[in-house]
């Protein structure tokens, strides 16, 4: 059985029409090449060997997700410096037009132009934003983002936000800046990437406190992550209880293991049932993004 058959077997046996993966990366080729070079060099935000399992051209990567039965996925672009986000957003418009099963994605960075291009992105039909606090090295409460968060909150567009301190902490990572942000914009629909690793418990607290906060499972529970940032077994019951706040994410293509492996470690968690599995792999995201 090849990998696509293994993945399809999982969601078919659960009675699902496929998978919704909220955390996948598609970027302009020159940007993706630089990302892969960074992983290959074991850069300071990685610090360990990290092979790219699905290193292939864009068309092949899209085809792979479709073979897996992924109904919707994202093109999580992110800016690490000024004057980059608007250009990435323009690229993402074209990618979404050419790839109808990709959620129209956009990003932003704390800069004076951000409110203008974020408003334009919302008008153009952006379905999800990506914010990367670690790579961007910015405070989510930077005054330059005040209007941006207000626009996104009012529009109800979800934001996949890498704000946990894994794989290594940054100046502005961790739960405290996000708690402060949600105190100011409590209606924000935040999807905390990687379950907020390694501050799992604190981000579960935020999901309990704020109805619109979700967490994506990206890389969590896999042996690769469990070696250094294990999910606390004491939180298993709370993870199950918060099943409607958990969304599947993979980090495809930039993962050092197979897609089927990631899903198996998720669905084999102790104490979860098929309703939880269906919610996480498909139904929660389908509801959030209005998929039929």
From TrEMBL:
Keyword Ribosomal protein: no
Residues of the Amidohydrolase-related domain: 20-291
SUPFAM superfamilies named in the record: Metallo-dependent hydrolases
UniProt-listed Gene3D superfamilies: Metal-dependent hydrolases (3.20.20.140)
Isomerase in keyword set: no
Pfam families: Amidohydro_2 (PF04909)
An example Gene Ontology biological process: secondary metabolic process
GO cellular component: cytoplasm
Highest taxon in the source lineage: Bacteria
GO function terms (MF aspect): carboxy-lyase activity; hydrolase activity
PANTHER family xrefs: 2-AMINO-3-CARBOXYLMUCONATE-6-SEMIALDEHYDE DECARBOXYLASE (PTHR21240), ISO-OROTATE DECARBOXYLASE (EUROFUNG) (PTHR21240:SF28)
Protein name from the UniProt record: Amidohydrolase
Lineage: Bacteria, Bacillati, Actinomycetota, Actinomycetes, Mycobacteriales
């Amino acid at each position: 059985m090849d990998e696509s058959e293994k993945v399809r077997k999982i969601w078919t046996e659960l009675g699902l029409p496929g998978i919704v993966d909220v955390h996948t990366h598609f970027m302009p080729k020159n940007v993706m090449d630089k990302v892969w070079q960074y992983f290959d060099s074991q850069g300071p935000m990685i610090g360990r060997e990290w092979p790219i399992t699905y290193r292939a051209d864009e068309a092949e990567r899209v085809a792979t997700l479709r073979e897996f039965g992924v109904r919707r996925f994202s093109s999580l672009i992110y800016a690490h410096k000024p004057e980059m986000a608007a250009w990435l957003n323009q690229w993402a418009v074209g990618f979404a037009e050419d790839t109808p099963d990709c959620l129209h994605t956009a990003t932003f960075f704390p800069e004076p132009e951000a409110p203008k291009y974020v408003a334009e992105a919302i008008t153009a039909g952006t379905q999800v934003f990506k914010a990367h606090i670690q790579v961007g090295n910015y405070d989510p409460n930077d005054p330059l983002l005040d209007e941006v968060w207000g626009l996104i909150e009012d529009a109800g567009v979800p934001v996949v936000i890498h704000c946990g301190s894994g794989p290594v902490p940054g100046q502005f990572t961790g739960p405290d800046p996000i708690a402060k942000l949600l105190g100011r914009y409590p209606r924000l629909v935040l999807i905390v990437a990687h379950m907020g690793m390694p501050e799992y418990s604190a981000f579960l607290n935020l999901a309990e406190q704020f109805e619109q906060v979700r967490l994506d499972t990206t890389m969590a529970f896999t042996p690769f992550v469990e070696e250094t940032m294990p999910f606390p077994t004491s939180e298993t019951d709370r993870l199950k209880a918060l099943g409607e706040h958990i969304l599947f994410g993979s980090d495809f293509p930039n993962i050092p293991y197979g897609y089927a492996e990631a899903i198996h470690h998720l669905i084999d968690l102790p104490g979860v049932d098929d309703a939880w599995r269906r919610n996480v792999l498909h139904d929660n995201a389908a509801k959030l993004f209005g998929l039929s």
